[in-house]
Amino acid sequence: MKKTWVTFGIAAALGASAAMAEEVRVYNWSDYIDEDLLAKFEEETGIDLVYDVFDSNEVLETKMLAGGSGYDVVVPTADFLQRQITAGAFQKLDKSKLPNIANMWDVIEARTAQYDPGNEYSINYMWGTTGLGINVGKVKEILGDDAPIDSMELVLNPENMEKLAECGVHFLDAPTEIIPMALKYLGENPDSADPDVIAKVEPVLLAVRPYIQKFHSSEYINALANGDICVAVGWSGDVLQARDRAAEADNGVEIAYNAFTEGSLMWFDQMAIPTDAPNPDAAHTFLNFIMDAENMAAASNYVYYANGNKASQEFLVEDVIGDPAIYPGEETVKNLYTKSPYESKVQRVLTRMWTKIKSGT
Asked: What are the angstrom distances between the C-alpha of 200 and each of 180, 196, 340, 346?
């Protein structure tokens, strides 16, 4: 079930006395934490937790760059984080207040340092890949047993998409992920910031646009699970949530997640503290709580995403740690790519192109 603007902190409803209580305000992605952890945080710390959700980096970035967001902890994806650090949106972490930072995984920290040198401003919450969510039965019924269910051909070849339109296809509403994907499909560098190279994507995406039912970054979870759509270009953990919801419902829908054989984007969602956070001390308390090995494992076991906490791995259920769609093998990881943030001029090019693609004109 999608949670929107969920607020924890019972004291917040108790009138004037609530104003005296210490609170921490967290802004995270929707469907992205075990709510039992939020109650546990309040019980263990005595700090009231206000927990709100968003479903696109663009929404979060608008708040961060405007300033005065009112949040103590936010969770941008790494390339957005990098640009926001440059803009002065975040404060450096006081690692003396984060003893659990010793639990973090050096392999992931080496990758996130590309965006946050020295990991001075952020900790990794979750990481994963962007690929294909497939209703296996429906796709093979329409395209045959040799359907390219692990290839960009499935969703960027208009002949395939025209047929799949009858059972429904969703794409992430995420230009900074879909446009690099299309560049990779074309054999170009997915990390290119050259507007002339990026322009090559437009005809590719416009050719399949008539067959895309919706651009959205969270609705595809339930749509896949319920059998309302048959394909989604989405995030690994979201698709696996859909897979498990379908299995729990016993509705005959078999969902699979595949990274692209051409290479998938590896992304990182980072927890950071805004420069103007109302309660930075409580923010550090929240980050340290999240970095506890058992707490981080509980989060991953709930959302079916990999995390950047090495110590948590002994507490992960086998369905998570043993699933190569969540924790990919070494060969798959070698084929994954990361991307850098776009400068503002290039970002405007992407935004204009994305508006055109979504409108289909």
From this structure: 11, 7, 19, 14
